[in-house]
From TrEMBL:
Domain VOC: 1-125
Name the UniProt record assigns to this protein: Aldoketomutase
Domain of life: Bacteria
SUPFAM superfamilies for this protein: Glyoxalase/Bleomycin resistance protein/Dihydroxybiphenyl dioxygenase
InterPro entries (UniProt xref): Glyas_Bleomycin-R_OHBP_Dase, Glyas_Fos-R_dOase_dom, VOC_core
PANTHER family per UniProt: LACTOYLGLUTATHIONE LYASE
Species for this entry: Enterococcus eurekensis
Length: 126
């Protein structure tokens, strides 16, 4: 049986701040947006250029703050210029970690945190 990962769903509290994070800090594009006011939720699907996996942002109108589970670690994104993206993230309002390398080697990644507390691992494209 052929299986393909097609989406990752994140529940978010502030949809505009989250959209700003993914579309302005990264190059994600809104693929579709569906509003269900009668059921008090919206769905926004984001595409990442070069990937067939979408992020589904679920915004529940009156939800209490979510707790990021301890079983979920992070999303991963690759970039062609790691140092430039690190500078962009450090200059933003988002919590950004230092450049790191495995076992103290050459830096290959860093983490940035989105408005809902989800961590994004930004890795150097190979």
């Amino acid at each position: 049986m052929n299986q393909v990962l097609v989406e990752i769903c994140l529940r978010v509290r502030d949809i505009e701040a989250t959209l700003d994070f993914y579309t302005n800090l990264f190059d994600f594009e809104v693929a579709s947006r569906r509003e269900f006011p009668e059921n008090k939720f919206d769905l926004i699907y984001l595409n990442s250029p070069g990937s067939s996996v979408q992020i589904e942002l679920t915004y529940n109108y009156d939800a209490e703050p979510y707790e990021v589970g301890n079983g979920f670690s992070h999303l991963g994104v690759t970039v062609s210029d790691l140092e430039k993206m690190h500078e962009i993230c450090k200059a933003s309002v988002y919590e950004t970690g230092e450049l790191r390398g495995l076992s103290g080697g050459t830096p290959t990644y860093f983490f940035v945190t989105d408005p809902d507390g989800y961590r994004i691992e930004v890795k150097r494209a190979k």
